[in-house]
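23692_t:CDS:1: structure, please.
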Amino acid sequence: KKIQEAKLVTEYGTDLDLSEKLRYLLALAFLPPEEIPAAFNILKKKYHQLLI
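Here you go.
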């Protein structure tokens, strides 16, 4: 739903690299709360352009 709200549906369906990165970001919700900041920082360093 958030992908739809951000108007990324077309890109998500056609850009495999982008869809993989977005899945990593969405997967943060399944981590224990205390691990989310560290995991987000890892993603932010690795995928900086996506997250700005």
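Notes: Residues 2 and 28 are 14 Å apart (CA to CA).
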